[in-house]
Design goal:
The chain is an all-alpha fold. Helices cover 61% and strands 0% of the residues. The chain contains 12 helices and no strands. Helix 7 packs across helix 9, helix 7 crosses helix 11 and helix 11 runs antiparallel to helix 12. Belongs to the globin family.
Length: 250
């Protein structure tokens, strides 16, 4: 497009890429002490973010149908996005709306971390894909539009009926589960965790993610834990603790 900075004589491509890469690294650096990630990993992540930012600047606008659907989702209530589920399917119960103060005790933090340690023994990709399956299930009729919020959901041939074969889903699913792992490990250090989570939330806003989506993801997380953990580990106390945790993480 004529408005694309890459084609403008005022900002050469190299300068644009350098600027975008710097912004991406600035966004990722706060995660380094939390995730204990090597600098090379952050650099690789910054490259991915740079490519995505460049596409947003230089690629044509999203189709009007998708733009309209994002606007509809932004105005939707949590009830609109969380239909009743079929009998026998794990459901999201409890208030999963964001809460300003940590409502959990030290014992609950310990229970969350102990329970999540069991989750970490499972294949991360398997947990992540199951999480996304539950997200789309809880989204109900809005699932196709929710899928388009993700890059893998906008690819040709994407099907909600065959998520296991979806190209691009596993890397994103792994990243989401890894982020939850970082959050769980830092629940007793909220002064460090909350600013990072806020930064992460602000990064997602331009992609159409709105507050109404977070309770759906929280419900999907609870359902995933119920499906993946042994019954003796997924206790009512654990479920209540994770529900409270999501109120802070979201």
């Amino acid at each position: 497009r004529s408005s694309c900075p890459c084609s403008s004589s005022g900002l050469p491509k190299v300068a644009l890429l350098s600027d975008l890469y710097t912004r991406a690294m600035q966004a990722l650096l706060p995660l380094a002490p939390l995730a204990r990630a090597p600098l090379a990993w952050l650099a690789a992540g910054a490259v991915v973010m740079t490519v995505k930012l460049l596409k947003r600047i230089c690629m044509p606008e999203a189709p009007k149908a998708l733009t309209d659907e994002k606007a509809r989702l932004s105005a939707a209530s949590v009830g609109d996005l969380t239909p009743s589920t079929q009998a026998g399917t794990p459901t999201c119960q409890g208030d999963l709306s964001p809460t300003p103060e940590p409502p959990f005790s030290a014992d609950e933090v310990a229970l969350i971390q102990k329970t999540w340690a069991i989750v970490k023994t499972l294949p991360t990709a398997t947990v992540g894909v199951l999480l996304f399956k539950n997200i789309f299930r809880l989204a109900g009729d809005a699932a196709p539009a929710v899928a388009k919020l993700f890059s893998f959901g906008r690819k040709e041939g994407f099907s909600l009926d065959d998520l296991d074969a979806c190209e691009g889903l596993q890397p994103h699913a792994i990243m989401v589960v890894s982020t939850v792992s970082v959050a769980v490990s830092k629940l007793d250090q909220l002064e460090e965790l909350v600013p990072v989570l806020r930064q992460l939330g602000s990064v997602h806003q331009p992609y159409g993610v709105v507050e109404a989506h977070y309770p759906v993801v929280g419900g999907a997380l609870l359902a995933t834990l119920e499906q993946g953990l042994p019954k003796e580990n997924w206790t009512p106390e654990a479920k209540e603790a994770f529900t409270k945790m999501w109120g802070v993480v979201a």
